[in-house]
Amino acid sequence: MTGSLSLDGTQVLEAxxxxxxxxxxxxxxxxxxGALEAMKVEEFPAATFQLGEPIELGEIPxxxxxxxxxxxxxxxxxxVTNPVEIPIEAQxxxxxxxxxxxxxxxxxxxxxxxxxxxxxxxxxxxxTIEVQLWFTPAEGT
Length: 141
Prior knowledge:
Elements: E1 2-8, E2 11-20, H1 29-38, E3 46-51, E4 55-56, E5 66-77, E6 80-93, E7 96-106, E8 126-135
Antiparallel strand pairs: 1-2, 2-3, 2-4, 3-5, 5-6, 6-7, 7-8
């Protein structure tokens, strides 16, 4: 995953991230090809998130304090873009900023079929997207 985040005071002004979908694997290698095919990874090797509006954090937190917010933006997978709201928690550490969050998406909203594989007992139309991001200041800032 690659990406960036721009802060100005207590606002996250911009954020964008890209995930190399070709690196996705399941907990059973026999299912991997089915998952990659379902997500059309050959044609669309990246999934992206683009923040749609600034996030106001309130005040600059003390180290170790947790801030909760919602990241509103656009998520693109398999070439299809939809709006998403991702509840997030952020914490300032000595090494930088840690952000975690998750949201559910409906696979058919992205023209993605539920993966099929001989060793797959069941799969859901609803997928959970979880993120855990570590941010460090850019050099010179």
